Amino acid sequence: MKSLKELTRPNIIALKPYSSARDEYNGAAASVFLDANENPYNLPHNRYPDPMQRDLKAELTKIKKVSTEHIFLGNGSDEAIDLVYRAFCEPGRDNVVAIDPTYGMYQVCADVNDVEYRKVLLDDVYQFSADKLLAAADEQTKLIFLCSPNNPTGNDLLRSEIEKLLNTFDGLVILDEAYNDFSESPSFLEELDKYPNLIVFQTFSKAWGCAAIRLGMAFASAEIITILSKIKYPYNVNQLTQEQAISMLQKYDEIERWVKILKEERTRLMATFVALPCVQHVFRSDANFFLARVSDAGAIYNYLVAKGIIVRNRSSISLCGSCLRVTVGTPEENEQLLKALQAYGK
Ligand code: PMP
Question: Whose CA is nearest to atom 8 of ligand 1?
Answer without folding.
Answer: 103
